[in-house]
Structures are given as structure tokens and as C-alpha cells.
Amino acid sequence: MEEKILVTGCAGFIGFHVCKQLIKKGLFVIGLDNLNNYYDISLKRARLKEIENFSKNNIKGEFLFIKADLKDEKILKNISKVHLPKKVIHLAAQAGVRHSIENPRAYINSNLVGFGNVLEFCKDNQVDHLIYASSSSIYGGNKKIPFSEKDFVDYPVSLYAATKKSNELMAHSYSHLFKLPSTGIRLFTVYGPWGRPDMAPMIFTKSILSSKPIKIFNNGEMFRDFTYIDDVSEAILKLLHLPPKYLNDDKNLNSSELPELTPHRIINIGSSNPINLLEFIDILESEINIKAIRVFEKMQLGDVKKTYADTSYIEDLINYKPNTSLKNGIREFVKWYKNFYKLFS
């Protein structure tokens, strides 16, 4: 019998790629997504169609899609009556730092209420391992670089980051109280084919190809630890079958000992190679073969100047070494973009 994996946010950028890799490995994937209109629904539907076609052509794995909003706890309860996934990859969330300033309620509903329901589902069904998406946004304006999982991160600079920090605390409490093995992954600027339209690669590419100016914030003094989607998917799949262990049942432990003894961990997934935004644009121009019209603007509210992942923990744990250069990753993205929007324009 195939192992069943629940993937929330299956029609999202990362969820799409993770689902395909799980199916390829011969697993039964139950994919949940609410298909909201935060960005172009047709892109989400195209991802779903691609997963379904991939599943039909794969002799080993299976895919079942359920349209559902995680705010509705009944949905997850109904799933547990029919399917008993023993592992959960929770990637559904209201994304975007800037949008959280304009629409805070969406972040509270999805990232807090929705995540609470996922934790309850995992607890009630004694899930073997929960992997959930956190974010590099948690590090906020930290001056110490590279960003380590051990850094102090109690001062988020956006509501989005605050909800992700809350997710880590909520997951830790469930891990401690109910011995739920869980792994929070702090993702660093994931890019690649099938990416999100609200992120720089898509925004810049669309503008360059239509001869419209691109906005470059903080006068270009921005650095991002760009991480290619295939490297991220590979890391998630390796971590999935390596849950953290509950090391001690001693109920008399003091609070300072809990992080080491609770089956919960936080892991950075990044390239550990921050790239200046202007260099990123140079590479993008080269691959598109069109010069961008550059407009320089001041720093945006809630944004940070630099992200830089310390990946020593994940390197030791699963021998993680992202092997996609930014140039090759952008080349694959541009190739996909031109093909996709030629077909769907």
C-alpha cells in the first residue's frame, strides 16, 4: 500500500513542485488548496492540471486534489475519516510581506487559524512527521549575518513574519505537549519555473518583456539569498523521512532544556550566497536579451535589506548542497516563462 502524504497549498509554487516529486517517488499525495485569488487563479489551475497529468503518466504515485480552506476544521476531520496520511507537508499560507500591511485579516485567518487546525489534525491522527513552511522574513532586520537558526528573532518587521514566528511557537508547543515530530523550514527567496507572480523574477520579467519600467527599492542596495526550487524540493523530501526524535520523558525538566528534548526543529533552507539585486537584474536581462528600464525608489515598509542563510545545520543533517547556480536557475525560469505565457496569453 502506498504511503499517503498530505500536502497543503498543493497549487502553490512550492507545493506544486513538492507534489510532483512525491508522486515520482511512488507516494499517494492528497493535495489541499483553497485556490484563492491572491494572485492569478489560472496559474494555480494550470499547476494543478500539470500535477494531475504527471500523476496519470506515472505508474507508481497517485494524486487526489481536494479544494478546501484550512480555516474550516471540518475539512481536515473529513479527510481523516477516509484517508490517514502519516506525514504532512504544510505549505498553505497567505504569502507576501507587503500584502500583510494591506490585508492583515487574511494572514490571521490562514496563517494562524489555518495552521492551528493543521496542528490539531496532526495531533488527533498521530502523524509521524509534520513539515511546515516558515520564512526567512522571521529574521527581520537582524544585523548579524549569516542568519542562524539560533539567532534571536523576537522582533518581526511585518505581520507576515510575525505569523510565521507564531507558527514556530505553536508547533513547538504541540511537539512538547503531544510528542508531535515537526520541522519548521525557514525558506530563503525561492525562485524558478511556475513561480509566484508577486515575486521579483516574475514581476521583472513581465515588465522587461513589455518594455515597462521595473522598480528597484533602496536604490538597489538589496541582497537576497536566492534558492532554486529544485534544491528546495530535494531538501524537503530528504527531511520528510527524517523526523526529529523525542529524547526524554522527564516531566521535571526546566524550560531552558526543552528545545533540545522536544521533537521540534527549525531549519534554514537557502543557498548561503546573497546576491545583490542589481546583479540579479543583470543576469535576468542577459537571459531575456532585453535591457530593463530601471527606476530606483526608497526602501519599502516591512522589507529588509539583506537575507543570508547559515546552512551548516542542514548540511550536517542531510548533506544538503544546493547545486543550481543563479544563472542556470534564471535561465530555466525564463525558458518556462516564455513557453507558459505563449500558451496561456
From TrEMBL:
Residues 5-241 form the NAD-dependent epimerase/dehydratase domain. It comes from Prochlorococcus marinus (strain MIT 9515). Its EC number is 4.2.1.46. Keywords: Lyase, NAD. PANTHER family: EPIMERASE-RELATED. Signal peptide: none annotated. One of its GO terms (molecular function) is dTDP-glucose 4,6-dehydratase activity. It comes from the Bacteria. This is Putative nucleotide sugar epimerase. It holds the Pfam family Epimerase. InterPro entries: Epimerase_deHydtase, NAD(P)-bd_dom_sf.
